[in-house]
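ok, trying the design again with the full structure, not the truncated one.
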């Protein structure tokens, strides 16, 4: 079994899905900003954000609690807890507003610059 489940970002049309370890975020893309040259960060604005958390076992939670104190110093707040256990905890970490709007900004190297460029170009092309 994997300690870290594969994560990805997909944008199809104007719908986006972000999967990170045991949670998924879906919503309608308002804007996606990845600079054409020297892309370092992706800024993604969503509306109608919906969260889904997959349950994890005790070993996964234990690993998360052991690694969290170290990771929180170096990574974005939504990235540090490997396995959030509740939607309210996750919504507060991500900064989801009451109306379901959300702005995420993360380093392009998280999913790979080329992969993010491909995802955004495919979404712009409508494929």
């Amino acid at each position: 079994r994997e300690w870290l489940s594969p994560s990805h970002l997909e944008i199809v049309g104007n719908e986006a899905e972000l999967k990170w370890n045991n949670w998924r975020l879906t919503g309608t893309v308002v804007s996606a900003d990845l600079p054409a040259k020297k892309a370092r960060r992706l800024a993604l604005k969503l509306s109608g954000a919906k969260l889904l958390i997959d349950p994890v076992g005790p070993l996964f939670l234990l690993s998360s609690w052991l690694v969290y104190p170290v990771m929180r110093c170096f990574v974005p707040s939504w990235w540090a807890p490997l396995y959030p256990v509740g939607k309210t905890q996750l919504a507060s970490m991500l900064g989801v507003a009451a109306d379901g709007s959300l702005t995420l900004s993360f380093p392009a190297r998280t999913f790979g610059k080329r992969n993010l460029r491909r995802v955004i170009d495919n979404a712009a092309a409508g494929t």
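Keeping the full-length input from now on. DSSP finds three helices and five strands in the chain.
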